[in-house]
Design goal:
The protein is mainly α. The chain contains 10 helices and no strands. The chain binds heme C (5 copies).
Length: about 190
């Protein structure tokens, strides 16, 4: 028997748009429901000790790399150990409640469990070293940290935000070469 191509065509005409519409709607709904969790602009969790970047990095001008060791040579920036804090706080501001808590933790050999502020989903690959070595300043992605009394996420870290810079990185990075761009192929960030 000859297949009835006209019937098939009608089926495709009817079902294909339905399937596509259902797929698009479910992607959209999932995106909308999870968006507040992913795009946590303004997120600032309560930390075990209230640590002020405005005081340490702003007023006292301590270099970011003093505490965030390895940010220019590795994928992740580290968060300081209590030992780094205690280099100064054996002597400095020892009467402040936060410093007393810090000293007690250090004496017990405990690390302070700083809560993570910026976090990309696991399916995204990001490495600090390439960006920092390309001359991109921390402020570009983390905002004016030197003025933050409480660390807050100010940028969405969305795909659009990454690509927005990758397309025209030379405009976003002062003093960079005029042809500086970042990758736009999917596999660069989703590997
Ligand atoms: C004296 C140590 C110290 C210095 C200097 C310092 N930081 Fe931090 N930083 C910390 C600590 C402790 C935390 C974790 C607690 C918090 O989030 O406030 C942190 C957290 C952060 C985070 C959030 C990490 C996350 O979980 O997402 C960013 C971003 C950051 N610092 C950037 C900077 C930048 C940029 C500079 C320089 C302008 C800087 N820091 C200087 C100690 C320091
Ligand atoms: C191109 C954007 C960009 C630049 C520039 C940048 N960061 Fe980040 N930073 C991020 C992103 C994105 C994350 C979240 C990474 C993740 O979840 O894997 C992050 C996370 C962090 C964290 C939390 C620990 C970690 O590595 O996940 C710290 C601390 C931090 N950054 C400090 C810094 C400091 C200090 C500088 C400057 C020396 C800097 N960052 C420059 C985008 C950037
Ligand atoms: C390079 C030296 C240095 C390092 C490193 C350092 N601090 Fe401080 N910190 C100071 C000084 C100095 C003060 C007092 C500033 C003032 O009162 O004007 C201070 C003040 C503080 C205060 C009291 C703020 C207030 O007024 O209540 C806390 C809490 C604190 N630091 C926590 C930390 C933590 C946590 C770390 C490690 C992540 C750290 N500090 C690393 C030098 C340092
Ligand atoms: C302010 C500009 C800027 C922002 C924002 C930015 N990038 Fe980049 N990125 C660059 C530049 C410039 C390069 C190329 C550096 C080079 O070639 O030396 C790059 C390179 C990369 C690479 C290729 C190098 C590697 O590590 O494999 C990846 C992956 C990457 N970026 C991921 C991201 C992700 C994910 C985000 C968002 C969370 C992001 N970038 C945000 C400027 C940026
Ligand atoms: C420069 C890095 C970068 C490149 C290149 C990139 N993405 Fe993404 N992508 C991201 C980041 C970051 C997120 C997480 C966004 C969030 O959490 O809101 C993401 C999320 C996604 C998601 C999840 C849905 C969403 O919006 O959160 C899909 C699907 C996706 N990307 C597909 C792609 C495809 C297809 C390409 C190639 C055309 C691509 N991406 C290229 C960084 C990138």
């Amino acid at each position: 028997m000859e297949p009835n191509w006209n019937r098939l065509d009608e089926h495709v005409k009817f079902y294909l748009p339905v399937v596509v519409a259902v797929a698009l709607v479910s992607i959209l709904i999932t995106g909308l429901i999870t968006a507040p969790v992913r795009r946590v602009k303004g997120y600032s969790p309560v930390q075990p000790v209230s640590f002020s970047h405005q005081l340490h990095a702003g007023q006292m001008r301590i270099d970011c790399r003093h505490c965030h060791l390895g940010v220019e040579v590795s994928r992740h920036a580290t968060v300081p150990t209590t030992a780094i804090c205690m280099n100064c706080h054996k002597a400095a501001a020892t009467d402040k409640p936060g410093v007393i808590r810090l000293r007690e933790a250090a004496a017990r050999g405990e690390t302070l469990l700083w809560k993570r502020v910026h976090k990309l989903p696991d399916f995204v690959y990001f490495a600090h070293l390439v960006h920092v070595q390309a001359g991109i300043r921390c402020d570009n992605c983390h905002g004016d940290v030197r003025r933050m009394d409480v660390m807050t996420q100010v940028s969405t870290l969305s795909m659009g935000a990454c690509l927005g810079c990758h397309r025209q990185a030379h405009e976003r990075v002062p003093g960079s070469q005029a042809n500086l761009t970042g990758p736009e192929n999917c596999s660069a960030c989703h590997r």
